[in-house]
Design a protein that fits this description.
mainly alpha; about 75% helix; 21 helices; single chain; about 0% strand; about 475 residues
Length: about 475
């Protein structure tokens, strides 16, 4: 369809997109003014309020993996899939209640801007040990997992743009790339958080609209009862129907642990200005994520009353959005912008964490390059381009990719982050040993095809944690646990 004809039909989306992109650019300029130093570009100079960080926390987590990936998986897994939503809300509370406040205080004491900085401060102490293997290895893990996650988000955004604009998938991915690279590279953390506040509001309204229109098209909220009467839909109500329950628990755990150990979530705590902001942010994050997940996770189940024979569940939400019998044109247009906002809110955060960690903890120790802000911005562009190119031929669906990255984060960082906050023992060798054994266990479990019985996150997390504890007991702590 010619551009002018498309605008005439989708004027709501065109207007909303113009306003949205205008806000992105405005926030990028404001962020640039606040990013005159590394601390400003990476963390907003640790002066961020609780409301903004709380919204950013749930907005950056609930991306296209929720709106497209997780919402669609209800079609395949049925009602038991709601366990995932409950787990995410629970771990959000755990993260803000027991991880966030102590992490904020320690990060300030260590002057940590990235997770490798935090680990080095906790387990090495010497701030000038930039080339220590702990910093570099943890930095590499973060860059690798971030790229995986970016691939998944670009895939979701690509499908959405392709169906909505009636363009090729390749063009759609490149369009998403262009939008996010511009404002993330210019504005840094302040730009990302300010934009997340706008995007979080759009996501809340969008999630509620998705639930309302899909359930109404399916015959109302109570129409789910008709599925129970259909023999070929019985698996939707069976705890072991669509997926063995123990595997489902593993999927839920691996996805939820990211709320505790994912560097993009932890970076929000580093940026909080004080403990009062942390208390405020807790309820903002919990309530926001609860509303989003409660609206999105049932979508795939109701889709059984609207769609048949779906093989790629990532296409369920985009397909429904393009169905005028489900969504009025104005609603589909608004929801398109809301889901775009969801994608952008995660891409920018993951991209900033990957670039800042990749430059500061992987490249900078071996380079005498001046202008760290410039090179961090270059890293933003480079990592986004790599991820978008891989997303043209992605290695799996959105959920598979994001769950694997979550499992790897848990296997590598859970013992060091959680035990490191509360247990006085621990040293760099224990952290690195736990990272190695956890990763080997995770990959081996997948390679041996044992995940159909027990999800890989359980053995990987168990081995990683046990290794950390055993090594920690055999040596003295490099740094005393700060008095918090």
């Amino acid at each position: 369809m010619p551009l002018l004809d498309w605008i005439a039909v989708h004027w709501v989306a065109a207007l909303a997109l113009m306003l949205y992109l205008g806000v992105l650019m405005y926030n990028a300029l404001l962020g640039r003014r606040a990013s005159d130093s590394i601390a400003g570009y990476y963390l907003g100079s640790r002066r961020m309020g609780g409301f903004a960080i709380g919204v950013s926390f749930f907005a950056t987590f609930a991306s296209t993996n929720s709106y497209i990936g997780h919402a669609g998986k209800g079609y395949q897994y049925g009602l038991p899939w709601l366990v995932m939503a409950f787990s995410l809300v629970l771990f959000t509370y755990i993260s803000w209640r027991w991880i966030g406040p102590r992490t904020r205080r320690m990060a300030a004491i260590f002057d940590a801007l990235t997770l490798p900085d935090f680990l080095a401060g906790r387990f090495l102490g010497a701030a000038d040990r930039e080339r220590h293997p702990l910093r570099i290895s943890s930095g590499l893990v973060i860059v690798f997992c971030s790229v995986l996650y970016l691939i998944a988000i670009f895939k979701g955004a690509g499908h959405l743009f392709a169906l909505f604009f009636d363009i090729s998938y390749t063009t759609a991915v490149m369009l998403a790339l262009l939008i996010v690279v511009v404002y993330t590279s210019i504005g840094g953390f302040v730009s990302v958080v300010r934009t997340d506040v706008i995007q979080g509001g759009l996501m809340l309204v969008g999630a509620a609209m998705l639930f309302y229109f899909v359930t109404q098209a399916a015959g109302g909220v109570t129409s789910i009862a008709t599925l129970a009467e259909q023999p070929d839909r019985a698996f939707l109500f069976d705890w072991n129907g669509g997926i063995p329950f123990v595997v489902l628990l593993g999927v839920a755990l691996s996805g939820s642990l990211k709320l505790i150990v994912d560097p993009r979530q932890l970076s929000r705590f580093y940026a909080l200005q004080d403990d009062r902001a942390a208390k405020q942010g807790l309820w903002v994050a919990v309530i926001g994520l609860t509303i989003v997940q409660a609206c999105l996770y049932p979508i795939g189940i109701y889709a059984h009353l609207l769609l048949d024979g779906v093989s790629d569940t990532d296409l369920i939400v985009p397909t429904l959005l393009n169905d005028t019998s489900v969504f009025p044109l104005w609603a589909a247009d608004f929801l398109f912008v809301a889901i775009v906002a969801a994608a952008m809110s995660s891409i920018d955060s993951v991209l900033l964490v990957a670039a800042s960690t990749g430059y500061k903890n992987v490249l900078a120790p071996f380079s005498n390059a001046a202008k760290p802000l410039l090179w961090t911005r270059v890293a933003v562009v480079a990592l986004a381009l790599i991820s978008a190119l891989v997303a043209l031929e992605p290695p799996g669906d959105i959920l598979q990719i994001t769950i694997f990255s979550g499992s790897l984060y848990a296997a590598c960082f859970f013992p060091a982050v959680v035990l490191g906050l509360y247990w006085s023992k621990g040293h760099a060798l224990a952290v690195m040993a736990s990272m190695v054994t956890g990763t080997i266990t995770l990959v081996s479990w997948l390679g041996l095809n044992l995940s159909a019985t027990v999800h890989e996150v359980f053995p990987a997390l168990a081995v990683s944690t046990l290794t950390y504890v055993l090594f920690s007991r055999r040596g003295s702590a490099s740094v005393q646990l700060p008095n918090l």
